Amino acid sequence: MPPLGLLHMRAWASLFNRLLRPSGVVCIREVHFHSQGQMSLQVSEAVLTSQLKPQHEKSNFIIKTPKGTRDLSPQQMVVREKILDLVIGCFKRHGAKRLDTPAFELKEMLTEKYGEDSGLIYDLKDQGGELLSLRYDLTVPFARYLAMNKVKKMKRYHVGKVWRRESPTIVQGRYREFCQCDFDIAGQFDPMIPDAECLKIMCEILSGLQLGDFLIKVNDRRILDGMLAVCGVPESKFHAICSSIDKLDKISWNDVRHEMVARKGLAPEVADRIGDYIQCHGGVSLVEEMFQDSILSQNKQAIEGLGDLKLLFEYLTLFGIAEKISFDLSLARGLDYYTGVIYEAVLLQTPAQAEESLNVGSVAAGGRYDGLVGMFDPKGHKVPCVGFSIGVERIFAIVEQRMKTSGQKIRTTETQVFVATPQKNFLHERLKLISELWDAGIKAELLYKNNPKLLTQLHYCEHMGIPLAVIIGEQELKEGVIKLRSVASREEVAIKRENLVAEIQKRLSES
Amino acid sequence: MPPLGLLHMRAWASLFNRLLRPSGVVCIREVHFHSQGQMSLQVSEAVLTSQLKPQHEKSNFIIKTPKGTRDLSPQQMVVREKILDLVIGCFKRHGAKRLDTPAFELKEMLTEKYGEDSGLIYDLKDQGGELLSLRYDLTVPFARYLAMNKVKKMKRYHVGKVWRRESPTIVQGRYREFCQCDFDIAGQFDPMIPDAECLKIMCEILSGLQLGDFLIKVNDRRILDGMLAVCGVPESKFHAICSSIDKLDKISWNDVRHEMVARKGLAPEVADRIGDYIQCHGGVSLVEEMFQDSILSQNKQAIEGLGDLKLLFEYLTLFGIAEKISFDLSLARGLDYYTGVIYEAVLLQTPAQAEESLNVGSVAAGGRYDGLVGMFDPKGHKVPCVGFSIGVERIFAIVEQRMKTSGQKIRTTETQVFVATPQKNFLHERLKLISELWDAGIKAELLYKNNPKLLTQLHYCEHMGIPLAVIIGEQELKEGVIKLRSVASREEVAIKRENLVAEIQKRLSES
């Protein structure tokens, strides 16, 4: 076996161990070659025998969800649906279409899109066939969709789960599985009109959710790059320095400066020049000021970015949201694919005392990425895109916390009418009655018991917040009536059976 | 190596191939043992060298979604949302709460739940940490949730994706990623009341979706087992024979009989006895008939099952759906975990000619599984459950096909008003105007161009099915009015600017 024999024995052992790892066997110590294509492996007997044991031996395992994930209870689902309805309602108000993509993509679709974060991608096991990964965000699948279907223009939203193998710090609301709501506008248009609409939508959603005061920081990748260039940062270090700047909302400028100088090799005076710029934030007047900046204005890229920001502020003023937007030179979004304006929405106050423990940080962010679609296109055809993603998990956490604090009770069902009886052996009548209600579109429940006690049935209504109860007994059956009870007031009236549905619908429409 | 040496050489080769399969290497032909714990493998050189090539070589890759998966276009999403709204509306009408669980579970949670189908589970790559698998259905995660949270009683629904590594025969609407809608009732109740409600809900949904006539086949695991026992099938072959019976809707009785005799070793007269039973189907009268069957009535299990079915039919009659239900002794659902009544809904007619190519088979199925929760509970505490799953993908396919055939145009946006101008340099006025509409909750769009042509704008409205257009030009600005245009009739009226929102809302509420 000449070509194989070229490998050193230890290399062979290592190769076999690598191949065997998916099956859990990593036990080969030595490999020897014999004549006639034979090969011998020095194996560890103990490990191999353990493989032969039936895997069905169920040790006392712990029932849990995977690390960093969780079930969502009916209470949580009610809060989520309310929030998502508002978010989706806003996307639809702006004419967006809905899209859905598979939970996993070909692994190669996700490579070289996320920079340092690529290590957080979940891969699927190679079970024969394609190499797959769970999606990491909804932006890359959107770009893949556009390139694959040669779509040149699209306004779409996407609500779905994404997965990241982050070290979960669950207290801060970070999970390995979480929901994102994305809105993006793809297509070649006149400058900054779609960008301004994205910011308008973010404002509408954050106002609508009543999360308290908020601010959207805006910057531009070209201004950032231009600023680094004029400060004297070599281009090769742009990414590393950006990721240091990105930490400014978590650590102080002194610590960021130290990182830049000590760990990333920047000259102290270069770091100080950056420091002067990135402490600047303000409205459109700061854009004007930067235009006048004798150093920055020498950079062509920066001037382009500033020109676009000026136009953006013009449109934001027409939309009546300019005072919510802050041009902030310290904003440096981490993802590789941004090419122009970038933005990030932050809540300015924790709305109530009990929520102070919630470190929510940014609740929505996005920007312009004109090159991503081209990365998928065989001929590199570009489709300019701008959009944003709402970190709804953080918003869910705030709203849940607020409800807990206020002691507000959340109904997890929508049942309108409960079918009860004071009598024994009345199951058949109850079933006939509830069937009539269901067929009339009324949300109704009964207890799955042949002979439940009346008190148990009425308690159930009160406990579940069901507004109405209909009560049927022998007397009512004889008279052709049903008792309709308001659960809250405990008032009861007799209603002719044939008028019951109409009366219930009337009561429900009034409440 | 005495314990290992006990295995035959060929068994060793087979074991190694099995272990190596996940890495794609299945090339070991012979294994020989040597002294001192050495072992030699006869390998295929070609296959091993192919493993050594770097996998990072990105050839000119094809942009696609993973095998068996697909993107859902805005058109498809509209159809889906309509169907899901109806399904969820029905679940809510019956008092169900919504639950959500992670897309993946600990691998061990899914083992021994799906019988032969376990091989279709997607595993995640071991990237350090827990061994995970994508969920295969929504039933097992529900049972895990109940056991984990010690919930003894719950009526819940769950709409979500599940993943199965099936060989995709996409023509028949089978995908590796697909959506399921599950409804289940957990808890100890009086017999057959929740079971009857499940069948009622299935009927409501299938009627509501207007898919044409349908039938729900019902059987009981205990009747099935009892029938096999009295026919002379040894208990060890129950599973194998059930899976043969399960094929009756795809292949003829003769072929099933042949499989039972030739492949599964049943005596021909035993197979014939089974054949006599499983051709029986009918209403409640068949239940009575089986009670009288001198042979079947000797089996205690079968009598229990028949007693429950009799009660079930009583309740179904009260619900007015008995004629939709057929007691069918050939129904034998494949999954391991069913313990009592089982059912499956089938469409009786392909609703239109063009849909004949769609082989939809069953569109909903379920049953009682009283032991599944106990499999997760350390002490084996049982929580009886009954429920069903709607195969919504098949329903989506039918409705999509029907819409295609009818040539019905689907609006993928909900935009109500388009903001247009006949004038150049009117972007600022358009932006101010659309902002007013958005803030009033009106769904509105404009073109992202500084100077679009009026004709282009009006064409866009017609193309997208937007009912109203508001037109602003210099004349209107001067007079403080806006032109409101009905896109369909092309009628235009001038409206005072301050009355515009009210007038639009009036028009929209009328249509």
TrEMBL record, chains A, B:
One of its GO terms (biological process) is histidyl-tRNA aminoacylation. Pfam families: HGTP_anticodon (PF03129), tRNA-synt_His (PF13393). PROSITE patterns: AA_TRNA_LIGASE_II (PS50862). It catalyses: tRNA(His) + L-histidine + ATP = L-histidyl-tRNA(His) + AMP + diphosphate + H(+). It is an enzyme of class 6 (ligase). Coiled coil: none annotated. Keywords: Aminoacyl-tRNA synthetase, ATP-binding, Ligase, Nucleotide-binding, Protein biosynthesis. GO terms for molecular function: ATP binding; histidine-tRNA ligase activity; identical protein binding; RNA binding. The keyword Nucleotide-binding applies. Its EC number is 6.1.1.21. Residues 68-422 form the Aminoacyl-transfer RNA synthetases class-II family profile domain. One of its GO terms (cellular component) is cytosol. L-histidine binds at residues 137-139, 164, 180, 184, 333, 337-338. It comes from the Eukaryota. InterPro entries: aa-tRNA-synth_II, aa-tRNA-synth_II/BPL/LPL, Anticodon-bd, Anticodon-bd_dom_sf, His-tRNA-ligase, HisRS-like_core, HisRS/HisZ, HisRS_anticodon. Belongs to the class-II aminoacyl-tRNA synthetase family. This is histidine--tRNA ligase. It comes from Ailuropoda melanoleuca.
